[in-house]
């Protein structure tokens, strides 16, 4: 196991009250695995990613009792300077949301590689150049032409591939990709997802892939975690979750996506609404809600190697 997140809770303390963005989240990530975390906007995916990267800033706070073990070390109890020096980018790297904008248009692509290397104490320019060229090839870009180019000369898909290559520069064991293909057209998305899968196979790097699109999760990952209102609603092997979603929210996500649900006439969006404060957070949008769902929060039940937070699977259903 490369990563264990245990009882992670993150809140934002606003003037008008507390937003519990991530609530008691626990999961493991195996070495070499691609795990997708899916959920609608606001479900806490990016906050979860930021917590693993120790990037939660005021008014956000990681709550007491939260633990994140990376190769057995609790990274939340490390000194922040040690975490930045020893772990960040070198062992855990990051492809942030709208990352294409993070490239500097006044710097050639190759200089982004030198810059990243130097800021992490790697000064051998020839070595960095060699590695950068290999990585650009790995993301199916022409290393010489693209290396010399400025970001504004590249398409969105090419820039995204440059970012992915950059995230691999220091040979990390884990990459967290936050909506890594969301801003791209469907054909480019597929192409980049293939590249990411290929990188995972060739290098064995573990990947947490954050997306709001269940069809992307179905394509890229071997396991899926479904989040809603900061909580894990369902977790299981991708094939099983897609074929037989247990949670009504997961079923709703699948039924609302045309590329998974081939029968277009059956496509049905999930009922709109905010997360409920009382009971199950999904109860006011759920077609299968029972009386108990309005009154108390369901625990996580284990059902055939799957986890599901829903009273439909408990003994106490009404
Ligand atoms: N810096 C912040 N300050 C205050 N509240 C925040 C901050 N960042 C996130 N939140 C709140 O935390 C909750 C979870 O947000 P988060 O961005 O983690 O969700 P998400 O699933 O990644 O959504 P998206 O895909 O839209 O980024 C939301 O209610 C959001 O408004």
Automatic annotation (TrEMBL):
The keyword Nucleotide-binding applies. It comes from the Archaea. Keywords: ATP-binding, Nucleotide-binding, Transport. Coiled coil: none annotated. Residues 3-254 form the ABC transporter domain. GO terms for molecular function: ATP binding; ATP hydrolysis activity. The keyword Transport applies. Transmembrane segments: none annotated. SMART domains: AAA. GO terms for biological process: peptide transport. NCBIfam families: oligo_HPY. This is Oligopeptide/dipeptide ABC transporter, ATPase subunit. It comes from Acidianus hospitalis (strain W1).
